[in-house]
Amino acid sequence: DFVALTDVVRCISLFALDRDDVGTILLGSGVSMTLRQFAELVADRARIAFGRDYVVRHHDDDDAPAVTYRLDTRRLHECGFVPANDFVAEVDALLVAASARIGELP
Predict the structure, then answer these.
(1) Which residue, 26, 33, 89, 90, shows the most beta carbons closer than 10 Å to its own?
(2) Could you give the 3-state DSSP secondary structure of residue 66?
(3) CA dist., res. 84 & res. 9, Å (int)
(4) What is the pTM of this model?
(5) H helix runs in 51-103, sequence order
(6) 51 torsion bin: left (phi>0), alpha (psi -120 to 50), beta (else)
(7) Is 49 helix (H, G, I), strand (E, B) or coil?
């Protein structure tokens, strides 16, 4: 269950700074994918950003299906927080930040 950094910051702002104690809240996006699927998203966004192909290498044994369960984020939603789950924008922003810091990525 990947969570965008911007959603983490929004959640901290809402619950740690702007609210009374609500107890323990599970932060999750409700989006499950394999690490390989996420790596392929990053490679695709890097291809668009930098104009070249990036290969995601994996072992044939790594073809396990994505999990089918979802984290129970009901309390999170009941408290008024809905994750944006904009993984494309998140990855794009991280690629821009990494590129600015170390130059264009290989």
Answers:
(1) 90
(2) coil
(3) 12
(4) 0.76
(5) 74-78, 87-102
(6) left
(7) helix
